[in-house]
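Regression test case RT-17, inverse folding.

Input:
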């Protein structure tokens, strides 16, 4: 992939990053409406709209993520005259809420009652895992636009696709870069003790050690209950590590980074992590304590490319703020459906699912990407550094990771 040049951002992203989880829940099936038309042709003039479901959190702690996702998806529709693949779109939105207890039944109704032809969204990994059977049995495509649990696409299905990320892949993307930067030094691993933490840090460790990196030690902190990191920070200091690598999100990310700096480690033990460690409103709450922290993620609004510049300009004009990684993931889900519907033999779930497998490369603000054989995005990742820009803190994209 060609190298990418980066520009200074206009202002910081405001965003709250939610925690990921993983569990499987049983689900029931449903059906979708179908309309046939020739593959590769424009929608017939008398064709009715295609009904698409959008399930994102509109309330609760993950609502800021849901708002970004909804804005990204709706911006794509606005740019394309409310059409996908030449068909008018009837968009049906539901509130995913905070977890599977709310998100699974709300999303199932899109299939069983609203009879949509495809569904986009889902922040929470437990909710996404609990919905797999619903979509497979109903033969309705499910495009996951955030949830990152490895298990969601561990067994590929024609009806399960993802435009976001895989936890272990995000962690793995920065492993070789950290090994190069620390040289002969070692790295201490620290994360919350739950599925996402193990997957993201596990992916990093595998890539880091494969590149010759040495692990000084590791700690798994109680998820959601840890408020004092001093004992763990003492272990990092006494380990002799040159750097630390972590995955935290939300309030844990805020407290960890602040205490890391207060404890005096920032100047002596370089802090790395996956992008959720310093994303959005988390970064705003961390303040100056986060400056210099380096992370990996598949988007930054600071990427300098014509495609991203157009997207950022349009997003700012529409919503008065810069786009986030969550905005782009949903925007690209709309782009994938657009390309699929252009060539689909029918607008039912089976027709769209078959067409998704042949859409090829997507020209995205994040950079060109395509679905891999597991239906996850084969996409660029970027090394980002928290810097002070125009009086604010920004995750500035430094370079594209190999």
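Golden output:
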């Amino acid at each position: 992939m060609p190298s990418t040049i980066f520009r200074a951002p206009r202002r910081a992203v405001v965003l709250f990053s939610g925690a990921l989880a993983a569990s499987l829940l049983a689900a029931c099936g449903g059906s979708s409406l179908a309309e046939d038309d020739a593959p590769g042709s424009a929608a017939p003039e008398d064709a009715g709209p295609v009904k698409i479901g959008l399930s994102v959190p509109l309330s609760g702690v993950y609502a800021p993520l849901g708002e970004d996702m909804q804005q990204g998806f709706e911006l794509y529709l606005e740019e394309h005259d409310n059409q996908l693949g030449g068909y008018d779109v009837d968009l049906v939105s539901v509130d995913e809420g905070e977890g599977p207890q709310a998100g699974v039944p709300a999303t199932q109704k899109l299939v069983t009652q609203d009879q949509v032809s495809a569904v986009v969204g889902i922040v929470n990994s437990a909710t996404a895992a609990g919905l797999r059977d619903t979509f497979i049995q109903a033969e309705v495509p499910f495009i996951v636009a955030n949830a990152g649990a490895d298990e969601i696409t561990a067994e590929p299905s024609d009806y399960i696709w993802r435009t976001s990320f895989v936890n272990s892949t995000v962690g793995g993307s920065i492993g070789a870069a950290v090994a190069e930067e620390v040289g002969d030094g070692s790295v201490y691993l620290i994360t919350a003790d739950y599925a996402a933490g193990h997957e993201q840090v596990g992916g990093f460790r595998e890539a880091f050690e494969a590149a010759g990196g040495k692990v000084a030690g590791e700690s798994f902190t109680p998820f959601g209950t840890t408020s004092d990191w001093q004992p763990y920070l003492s272990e990092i200091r006494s380990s002799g590590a040159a750097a630390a690598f972590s995955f935290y999100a939300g309030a844990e990310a805020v407290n960890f980074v602040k205490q890391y700096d207060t404890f005096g480690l920032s100047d002596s033990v370089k802090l790395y992590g996956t992008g959720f460690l310093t994303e959005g409103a988390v970064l705003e709450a961390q303040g100056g304590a986060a400056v210099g922290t380096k992370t990996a993620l598949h988007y930054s609004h600071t990427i300098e490319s014509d495609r991203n510049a157009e997207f950022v300009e349009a997003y700012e004009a529409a919503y008065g703020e810069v786009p986030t990684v969550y905005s782009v993931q949903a925007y690209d889900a709309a782009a994938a459906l657009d390309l699929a519907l252009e060539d689909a033999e029918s607008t039912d779930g089976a027709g769209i699912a078959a067409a998704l497998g042949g859409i090829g490369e997507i020209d995205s603000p994040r950079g060109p990407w395509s679905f891999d054989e597991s239906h996850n995005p084969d996409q660029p990742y970027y090394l980002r550094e928290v810097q002070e820009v125009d009086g604010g803190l920004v995750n500035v994209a430094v370079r594209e990771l190999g």
